[in-house]
Amino acid sequence: MGGSWSWQLTCALLLLFSAVVTATDHIVGANRGWNPGFNYTLWANNHTFYVGDLISFRYQKNQYNVFEVNQTGYDNCTTEGAVGNWSSGKDFIPLNKAKRYYFICGNGQCFSGMKVSVVVHPLPPPPTSAVAAQHSSPKSASPVLLKRGFRSLLVSTVSACFGIVWIYHL
Ligand SMILES: *[C@@H]1O[C@H](CO)[C@@H](O)[C@H](O)[C@H]1NC(C)=O
Ligand SMILES: *[C@@H]1O[C@H](CO)[C@@H](O)[C@H](O)[C@H]1NC(C)=O
Ligand SMILES: *[C@@H]1O[C@H](CO)[C@@H](O)[C@H](O)[C@H]1NC(C)=O
Ligand SMILES: *[C@@H]1O[C@H](CO)[C@@H](O)[C@H](O)[C@H]1NC(C)=O
Ligand SMILES: *[C@@H]1O[C@H](CO)[C@@H](O)[C@H](O)[C@H]1NC(C)=O
Q: Which residues constitute the signal peptide according to the record (predicted)?
């Protein structure tokens, strides 16, 4: 039975490690933060978002805020039916689903460009495909591909880990 606990500890540490290593925090607007007069579409086009990543908004507290809305809210700058709202000035929002997310500022500044929409991609397929792709065309092996491979490797390690814990509990 002692073995079960050490496995659980190992898995907990592994999970923590994988979360730290793989969850990218996408800071909206980079060093410009969340402010009016910035084209966040250009910012979003420059990033690739995966399930489990974070998007974070940094701004002057009490001046701006963040609402998660649907496409209508995004297009029309309305917060009606908002799914969530944040106002800490340093908001970390987990992107837990593979879908398009819409965020706007809820105090009217949405009309001044404080709106951003991001597409979150599912976690990539097993690492074998990434490895194969690198072997067939070394020149096209991009950091994205490597990152994808690394992530799925971690995902499979973590799944295997859970499988082991499960067996121990039988
Ligand atoms: C942001 O840039 C994109 C791509 O150039 C453009 O299509 C869009 O109209 C711009 N948005 C604003 C609010 O200027
Ligand atoms: C896109 O990313 C590149 C590389 O990080 C950076 O140099 C460039 O300024 C970025 N463009 C925008 C619009 O954020
Ligand atoms: C969005 O706003 C436009 C113009 O104000 C309006 O015509 C349209 O009906 C609105 N769309 C929705 C879905 O409310
Ligand atoms: C967005 O939410 C509003 C309010 O709940 C709703 O009227 C509208 O139809 C929704 N739009 C979409 C595209 O789901
Ligand atoms: C913000 O979210 C909280 C729940 O997290 C909700 O009670 C509140 O009504 C929301 N505020 C607005 C303005 O939608």
A: 1-23
